[in-house]
Write a structure and sequence with these properties.
Layout: E1 3-7, H1 15-26, E2 31-34, H2 44-47, E3 50-53, H3 62-65, H4 73-78, E4 87-92, E5 106-111, H5 122-125, H6 133-152, E6 158-161, H7 164-174, E7 179-180, E8 207-210, H8 219-229, E9 233-236, H9 242-248, E10 253-257, H10 261-270, E11 273-276, H11 284-291, E12 296-299, H12 304-307, E13 318-321, H13 326-338, H14 345-352, H15 357-375, H16 378-381, H17 383-388
Parallel strand pairs: 1-2, 1-4, 2-3, 4-5, 5-6, 6-7, 8-9, 8-11, 9-10, 11-12, 12-13
Helix pairs in contact: 8-13, 11-14
Length: 389
């Protein structure tokens, strides 16, 4: 078959790009389409793909300010020429699922989330826009994008959701059913500290966050809590509002920016616990921390409900706090500190293995094979397509 892979934008290696990386491993002969491509920020597997970009690639300073061009994205994704492609796999958290497949093509969309900027976290993204013409324009654009998002969901033959949480959002906003396949974590890479044995290393001298600085990630909650606690917190990541967050943080909080995988693994392995105050669709970083044997202190909502076993479970891998507030996070920290002996690093890692890269790869391969075979009979799709399969 002739295969096309579609991804929103390629400007770094985060959770969505880890999913795409597996698609590229499974289908190295495929052509890759994306709105914006910054090659030197990608892994070797993805960077080697034959890649076509959109007209947005030519916009000023697009590698840093691509999010400001959001209103152009629907038009840009629809202009990709997909004539001749038999199988289209989109990896979508924004507009990638909205490509225009040709009649007879099978379109499978791995949905990281319906476009969160215009749905349930719309107010969090645009809460500081103020009044007047700017606020009016943002509201009008958001309304247009919601209509387009729902309409374009009908161009998908099969949805895969990255969590049960996202599965419900797909049903709520698109009125579509989906199959859950959790994203991959490289558990063979993110492992227990060397020389620590099966029990792993229990003690670290700091807590850790690894996150992009979007409003719904609630980095501000962690900063307020740790300002009051005085405990050391390392924050790996960058993004929206970083300068303001740095100004608010006391000396016990250190900002490290983005780190390469080798350094990130080292930071995971030396921390005391991983802090996760936002409501995520899935959340790969808490699973990476668990793969290193580290417990997770998380706001008990969204994807972590599927990836963390909370205390007082018999074999806990973390602690949930009830509200996305500093007070609630501090209460969760207190529960963790009083029960630290209950968290066994080896058992925490074993739980993370449920989300291993190899499991994801096999589930995706089997899902695609099943859907292709279901429609490739001569009566369903024609002799030509059947012979290609």
């Amino acid at each position: 078959m002739k295969i096309a892979l579609i991804h929103d934008w390629l400007t770094g290696m985060r959770g969505g790009e880890r999913v795409l990386e597996v698609f590229c491993e499974l289908y190295p002969e495929a052509d890759l389409f994306t709105l914006v491509h910054v090659r030197n920020r990608l892994s070797g597997t993805t960077a080697k793909m034959k890649t076509q970009t959109s007209f947005v690639q030519r916009f000023p300073k697009v590698s840093e300010y691509y999010r400001y061009y959001l209103p152009f994205f629907p038009s840009a994704i629809e202009r990709f020429d997909l004539r001749g492609y038999d199988l289209i796999i989109s990896s979508s958290h924004c507009v990638a699922k909205g490509i225009l497949p040709m009649p007879g093509a099978l379109h499978i969309s791995y949905c990281h989330t319906p476009m969160r900027y215009v749905w349930d976290v719309h107010l969090e993204y645009f809460q500081d826009t103020g009044r007047g013409i700017k606020n009016f324009l943002i509201s009008a654009i958001a309304n247009y994008l919601r209509i387009w998002d729902v309409t374009s969901s009908q161009r998908v033959d099969e949805f895969i959701a990255n969590s049960r949480f996202v599965q419900q959002r797909i049903k709520t906003y698109y009125r579509r059913e989906s199959t859950v396949i959790h994203p991959p974590v490289k558990c063979d890479y993110f492992g227990l500290p060397a020389g620590s044995g099966e029990g792993g290393s229990r003690d670290g001298d700091y807590f850790l966050m690894v996150t992009a600085f979007a409003p719904y990630k609630r980095v501000d909650v962690a900063i307020e809590a740790f300002n009051r606690l005085g405990k050391p917190l390392l924050i790996v990541g960058d993004g929206q509002g970083v300068n303001d967050l740095k100004k608010r943080a006391k000396k016990n909080i250190e900002f490290l920016g983005w780190q390469n995988d080798e350094k990130l693994r080292e930071i995971y392995q030396a921390c005391r616990a991983f802090v996760f105050p936002g409501k995520e669709d899935f959340g790969i970083t808490p699973v990476e921390a668990q793969a290193c044997g580290k417990p997770v202190i998380a706001y008990g909502a969204g994807g972590v409900l599927e990836t963390v076993r909370p205390f007082p479970h018999e074999k806990p891998t973390g602690v949930f706090f009830e509200q996305p507030t500093a007070d609630s996070l501090i209460e969760g920290m207190d529960v963790f500190e009083r029960n630290r002996e209950r968290f066994n690093p080896g058992e925490i890692r074993n739980h993370a293995l449920l989300f291993d890269h190899g499991i994801f790869r096999e589930k995706i391969r089997s899902f695609v094979k099943e859907k292709v075979e279901a429609i490739c009979s001569p009566s369903a799709r024609g002799d030509h397509f059947a012979q290609k399969v």
